[in-house]
Queue: 2 jobs
Job 1
Amino acid sequence: MQIRILKPGLMSTIQDLGRYQYLSQAVPVCGAMDTLSARIANKAVGNEDNAAVIEFTYADAEFVSETDLLIAYAGDGAILKSGEQELPCDRPLFIPSGTFIKLTNNPSGCRTYLAIAGGWDVPEILGSRSTFLIAGFGGMDGRVLKKGDTLKNEATQSVSTQKIFKSLNYGKVNYPEWSIPRQLLLPADRKAIRVVPANEFGWFNSRSTADFMSASHIIGRQSNRMGYHLEGVLLHRVKHHELLSTAVTPGTIQVTGSGSLVLLMADCQTTGGYPRIAKVAAVDMPLCGQLKPGDALNFKEIGLREAEMLYIEREQHLQQLTTAVQTKYL
Amino acid sequence: MQEEVSQIYYLSEVAVTVEFGQQIAENLLTAVNNLNVLLYERPFPGFKTTVPAYATLTVFYDPILVIKSNLPGTGSFEKVSGYLSDLKLQSNTTKAVKGDVVTIPVCYDLDFGPDLTEVASVHQISTAEVIKLHSAGAYKVYMMGFMPGFAYLGGMNAQLTTPRKATPRKSVPAGAVGIAGQQTGIYPLETPGGWQIIGQTPLRLFDVNREQPSLLKAGDTVIFKPIDIHAFNQLTAW
C-alpha cells in the first residue's frame, strides 16, 4: 500500500509510542503527543499499538492513495474527506487506489493520527520509528513530511488486519458499522487536567499552590512538541535553593526562574533543573496533546495511588478494545 | 556541609527517582553509579531503563508488569520503591564502579576556537595558556542531559571560569568545545548556543548508527588531547 503527500500541512511527522531505551544518553522520548488517538487508529486496522502513524497538526493537508488502502484515523485535529464525502474516524477505512483525501478543519483539537495496515514503513532508529526533529533522526529521514513524499506500509500484517482488509475490499470507499468508542475513554470535561503534586510542590507558598490548582491556565504561543508555556499565574517560592539537574518526563510541570509554568511534552529534554510543582496524570496526557495555543485548562489534584489506578484501568480498557476488534474477525 | 537526605519519590506513573542527596559530590556520584550498575545486574520484573543524574537515579518501568509481579506492596510505586530501597542498602557496600577513560582530540586553532582570544583576555593570559589549562585536566562525566550525547563535565580549572557570550550564536557546529561559567562541554549536535567556543573535536559525540550512540556516559573520565589541523582533517576523513 502506498500514498503520496500532495500537501503536507503545518507539521506532519511519523511517530509511534516513543523511544525509551536511550534516555540515559539524553535521547528524548518523542512519540505521538496524543498516544490514545494513535493507539486507537492502530487498533482500528488490527495493528499493534506501537505501529508507526502519521501525526498531522491541524488540517490543510492532502494525500492520494497510489494503491488500495486500509487506513484509520483518530484525533481531534481534522476530519478526513474524499471529495465531499466525510470519512468516519476511529474505524477501518478501505480506500481504493487513486482517491484524493483531504484533512479539513476540526476546531475541537489540533492533532490527527493516520494509521495504515501494518504501520508506516520507516526504519527503526534506536528502538523506535518516532521522528526527533531537533537531532534529525527517526521517522521520515528525521524531518517533517513534505510535498511529493511517498509512504508505504510494512509488508508484515496481523491476521486481523488481513481479515479487515478482505471484509471491506469492494472497490469503493468502504467501512464497517462499528467504530472504537474513543469518546468513552475520555472524561466529560476535557479541559480539566488531573495532576499529582510533584517532588518540589512544597517549595512554593500556599497562595501559589492554591492559585496553581484553581486558576485557568492559557496555552502560550511559544508552545510546541517540547513543551507548553502556561500563562495566567506566576508562582512564588518559599524555598530558594537551586534544584540539581535531575530526570524530568513528558507531563512534568516545571516552574521557571520567573515563576511561570512549563508543561513538558513528548520531545522534552531528559533532565532539567527547574523545580517541579506537579505531574499531569498519564491518562490525561492525550488530552494535553490536543490543546492548542490560546486554549484554557484547569488542574485538578489527585493522589499518586489514584493516578496509578487510572493508568491500569486505561490499559485494561485498551486491551479489551484490541480483543474486541480481533473477535469481530475470527 | 548539608545533611544528606535520601529518599525515593514519584516522577510519573512509569518512573521513580532515588535521591541520594542535593549537591554535587564524588560520593553521591559513586552512589548513583553503583545503584545503576547493580540494578542492571538484578533488574525487577517490568524494569525498563534508568536516567542517572548528579545525585539521583531515575528508574523507568512498565507498571502492568510490576503489578503482576510478586514484589511486596500495593501499587507499582510502592513495589518498585520497596525493591529499590533494598537494593540501595546492598549497593552501598559495593566498591566504586570505574567508568571508561575517553580521550577526545581537540583542535584549538583560532578557526575552530573563535572565542579563544576572548577567554584569554578575560583572564589576562595567552591563548596558549588557555589551551594548556583546558587540556591538562581530567574531567568527570557527572551526567548526560540537555540533548542527545551531551555530557555535563566536572573538574575544569577554576582559572578558566568565563561567563557565557552576551549574545548567543545562531549556530554552533557539532563537536564544538566550549566554556560556560565553571563548566566545559562539547556540543553533540549543531544548535544555537551561548558558550565560549575554544576548539573543535573531529569525533562524533552522538551517532545513531553506533551500537552505543553516545560517545560518553555518566561516570566516564574525559581527557582533551590537543591536535593540529592536519590531524583534525585526517580524523575527519577517517
Note: The CA atoms of residues 195 and 280 of chain A lie 4 Å apart.
Job 2
Amino acid sequence: MAVNKPIRKIDGMGLTQGKPAYTDDLAPQDALIVKALRSPYAYAKIISIDTSLAEKMPEIKCVLTYKNVPDNLMTRAGQGYPEPSPYDKKVLADVVRYVGDAVAIVAGTSVKAVEQAMKKIKVDYEIYKPILDFEKAKDNPVKVHDNDGTFEMFDIGHFPDRNLAAGYAMEIGSVEKELNSSDVVYEGRYYTQAQSHAMTEPHSSTAYLDYQERLNIITSTQTPFHIRRILSRTLNIPMEKIKVFKPRVGGGYGGKQAVHGEVFVSLVTMMTGLPSKYIYTRREVFESTYSRHAMRIDMKIGAMKDGTIQVIDMNILSNTGAYGEHALTVLMVAGSKTLPLYNKVKAVGFRGDVVYTNLTPAGAYRGYGAVQGNFALESAIDELAEILNIDPIELRKKNMIKEMETSKIFEVMGEGKEGSPMTVESCKLDICLENVLNKIGWKEKYPCVEVDENTVRSVGLALAMQGSGIPFIDMGSASIKLNDFGTFNLTIGATDIGTGSDTILAQIAAEVLQIPVNKISVYSSDTDLTPFDVGAYASSTTYVSGNGVKRAAEKMVQEILRIGREHFDSDEVSYDGEYIYSKDDKISLVDLATIITYSENQQQLQTIGSYVGETAPPPYMVGAVEIEIDKRTGQYKILDYYASVDCGTTINPNLAKIQVEGGLLQGIGMASYEEVNHTDEGRLVNSSFMKYRIPTREEVGEIHVEFVESYEPSGPFGAKSVGEIGIDTPPAAIANAIKNAMGVRINKLPIKAEDIWMKKNNL
Amino acid sequence: MEITLNVNHNIHKVLVESDEMLLDTLRKLGYKSVKKGCDTTTCGICSVSIDDELIPSCSYLSYRAEGKKILTVEGLKEDARKIGEALTAEGVEQCGYCSPSLVVAIHTMLKQYEDPSDEEIKHYLVGNLCRCSGYEGHNRAIKHYMEVRHDGSK
C-alpha cells in the first residue's frame, strides 16, 4: 500500500519553495558570528599567541585559544562509542598539523569585525618540517603526533611514534601457498586520490542557551546523538545540559558525520551566554573539514588457466592526513566490501597501514573505502582476464558471489573489529550483469568500435557491493503515537540529510499500520524528543532504522487490537487500517482513537521499536560505461552509463533512483577529474569550486538506472541499503573502458587525458 | 546607505553597507530561500532573477539592484509550485539546498526561451550546481514541467 511507491518526499515542496529550514535560516538573528583563525603552516608549534588587541575591540565578545579551552583529547569522527578512531585531536592545541588547522576562535557582532579581529591576533610559530608524502610517512623521523598523548579506545593498531594512525591484517587460508600453486599471478599497483564531498550547504552550526539555561545546538550534522556525546565529553558539559537538533541539511555524503563547528559555537555560547553561529566558508569546507582517504593499493590475484580464481591479496597504504578520523574502518571496508564479490577463492589476504601526514584530514565519504578497493579489484579482474585470455565477463560470471552463498570475509572482517557470518539471502548480481550487458549492447560494442580514424567508442564494466549498517553496533529506533481522530506521530532518531529517509520511514510505518502516508506526521533527529539513532552513515537508515520503525508500528497494531478488545469486551478483534472489527460490530480507528482520548478507557497509545542488525546484507550492482575517446590526445567523454542495482525492495523507487544517479555522478567525478592537490608546503590548491571541479549537467551523457526484483528477508519489506553503492563502479568501469579503447591500463585516479597519452607513448 | 529594493513586488527601504552583496541583504530582509553555497560565484545557489536575468546575488552589490525588479522563489507563487511539483515528482530535489535557485533559474530560462532544446536547457542551467542528484532527474522534471505548461497554455 505505502511501500514500493514513488511518493513525493514529505519535505520536498517546502524545500523547493525556499522555506527557512537549514541551520543558517534558523539561527537566532542576534547570533554572534564565529570564525577561526587557521594555520598557514603544515606543521608548526605556537610559541606565543597575543589576542589582546582583538579582545579590546568592542564588537568582539570572545576569543579562544588553546589556553582557555578544555584540554581533552577527542576524535572528530562521529562514530559509535567507543570509537574505532584514535583520540588524537584537541579542540585547540599549541601544535598545528595541517594548513587550515584551527589556531584561534573569534566571536563578534559582525563578520567584518571578526575578520578585522583575526588580523590583530599575533602568532609566533616555530615552523616544523612537515611530512607530506604518504608513501614516506611510515617510520619517518618527522612524527605528526610526537608524544602528544594520543590514544586508542581499543586495539586499532595505533602507533603514533611510527606515524601509524591505525592498521589491520588478516589472512584466510594460505595466500602464499595458493599464489605458488596458481597457473598465473597478476600483480598490480593502484592509486586513488583524496576527493572532496562538495556538498552545497557549507557546514553550519548555531548555539544558544534556552530558558532552562540548557545549551541548544542546531547543526548540519549526520549524527546528532554522537554530536551530543562528543560535545559533553570533550567540553566537560553535562550531557543533560545539551540538546542537539538537526534541521534540514544541504547534503553530507559522509562529510557531516564528524563534529566540526559544533565545538566552537558551544564554547562561545557557554563562555559568553550569547547565541552564536559558525557558517564555514567554502574554503574551510575544502581545507578544514576532511576528504576521502587517498590510497595505494597493491593487488595480487592467482588463478588457474580455466579462469578459477584461487587467491586474492590486497595490501593498502591509506593516508589519513593530520588526524585519524575513520582511519581503521575506511581501510577495512576497502577489503570487506569488495573482496567477498569473488567468494570462491581458497585464500584471501588483506592488510594495510593508515599513515599520518601533515595534510587535511581524511574521513568518511560515501563508498567509505569500498570505492577505492573497487577501483583496484575490478581493474585487476580485467587485467587478469587478459593474461588468462578469457573474456572478462565470463571470468566474473565464473567467480562472482551468488544468492545463498557466503564468504568467510563476512565473519572475519567487520568495521573496526571482527564481523559476523552471513549467508547472502538476496543477490541478483547475475541478473544485474545480464541486464546491463543487454542494455548497453555489450556484444556489439566490446571492446571498442571505431568511429573515425581518430576516434573510438569503447565499453567498460565493474561489479560492486556495499553493506547495510554495521551489525551488532549501529542501532536505530522509532516511536509511534496514536492521536485523537486517528492520526499518528512517527518520531525517529534517524537523520534525513536529503536522502528522503523521513519519507521512506513513514512509508514503512504506513505499510504496517495499513494507512495512507499522509496520516503520519514525521519528526526526526532531536536528542531531546526522538529516540536514539546512530545517524546517517554506513548505508544504515533504510535497513537498520527501517527495521526499528517496522517494529514500533507492529507494536502499535498490537496496541490498537488491545484497545479494540477492551472496547468490544471480546477476544476476537481485527484491524484493517480503517476499522477495528469484533465478531459482529466495528468501530473506525478515528472514533476509537477519539474515544480513548476523551471519553472512555482514556489512555495514550505510544510504542517504541529499535533494531540492531545481526548481518549487513549487501546491495549489489553492475555498472557499465560507454566512452568516446580521441586516440591522438586521450581526451574522452562519457556517453552513457548503465547501472542495474539489487537493493532488495525499493521502499520509494524514485528516491532510490536518485540515490544511485547521484552516487554515479560523484563516482564519475572521482574517476575523471576531481582531485585534491597540495603545494610543496602542504597548502591546498583546490579550495574553491573554481579549482575543485565537480560535474556539471553538461559533462555527462545519459545515466540509466534500473532496479532488479529482489527481496532481502531480513530487511523491512525486503529492503537493503542504496545510499552508497552508486559511487563504487565508475572508477573501474571507466578505467576498463579506456583499456578497451587504447590498450593501456591507467592505475591512478583521476584518469586524465594526459596520463592516457603518456602511458600510450611510454612516457 | 539607505536604498529601495523591489523584491517580489514588495518595496523595501533598507540600510546597507556600500560593499554589501544582494545575497546578504535579501537574507536580512527575510528571503531565506536565497542561500550561500560558495565564495567564488561558481555554484549558482544564490541565483535570483533581476529584471528577468539570472544573476548570482552573492557578487551583486545591493545598491546596483535599486530600481530593478528582483524575484526570488518566494515571489514566483503558482509557477514556483508547479516547478516544485515537477521536481518533487521525481524526488530530485534531494537535500533541497540548490532547489529554490533552480526553480528561479527554470522560471527565468522559460522567459527567455519559449521552447528550449535539451542542449539549451543544459547550457542555460550549467551554472546551477547540484551534488545530490546526478542531474538526470532534473532533465526529466523540466521536460515534464514544459509539457504541463504547454498543455496549460493551450
Note: Residues 337 and 344 of chain A are 15 Å apart (CA to CA).
